[in-house]
# Entry
Amino acid sequence: MTAISISDQEYRDFSRFLEGQCGIVLGDSKQYLVRSRLMPLVQRFSTVSLSALLQQVISGRNLELRVAAVDAMTTNETLWFRDTYPYTVLADRLLPELAALKRPIKIWSSACSSGQEPYSISMTALETQAKRPGVLPSGVQITATDISSSMLENARQGIYDTLALGRGLSLERKRAFFEDAGNGSMKIAERVKKQVAFRPQNLMGSYALLGRFDIIFCRNVLIYFSPEMKAKVLNQMAMALNPGGYLILGASESLTGLTEKFEMIRCNPGIIYRLK
Ligand SMILES: C[S@@+](CC[C@H](N)C(=O)[O-])C[C@H]1O[C@@H](n2cnc3c(N)ncnc32)[C@H](O)[C@@H]1O
# Structure
């Protein structure tokens, strides 16, 4: 065995550990992924080999290591205004409709990664207020959560490099909602940031302390979970929504066979769900 090899048994044990911690199902033959994601931790935690590191992670005695390992195994791919239609539907339909509540509209971005999703929601709300004065008098309150502490830290900082800025952001929005942060990076403007509160939340845990929402974004995270875990998350989200609240999934995700608690709404383009 070399310092970077892992046995089939270690892989199986780690896969079980990971699913138990955060719901992520690795499946067969993802040894390469475990190796590439966890090797940096071998040095950081002064362990002799990947195999030894896995044993320590699974034994759970070192909390910092356990958290770092789960964090490293998350896939944080994201972009601004991802798939466009959720933000068009939000601006044209959901925000004007929910404004009738005459209180701040509460939105949960439930797997927010480095912040692009909640900040895109915040920018959409500000654009709606500017374009249609009076339509959103009480504004929005966005709660943005993720299991990854490193992603939450990046999101709170709100500083993005050229590569991140180039993914889904128009020049117009860059000018309106960002400030220069040097070296080609830009910082999200305070008026966008102040509508968003970031906090850690494992979707496997209880959502009771988060409160209730009018809209939940649960995008591109269910794909990593088993059908049982997906159903559990969706049923808990149904309980976290106000009556008639909306759920927005990723473009390739659906509720089929998972829960009966929502009705489908076709928006052309895109599909969203409303609590029955
Ligand atoms: C691919 S990103 C999606 C980001 C964003 N929603 C989007 O669509 O662009 C998936 C995110 O889900 C988070 N995640 C994975 N498992 C989670 C769990 N059990 N609880 C909360 N967040 C989780 C990851 O840390 C990651 O940031």
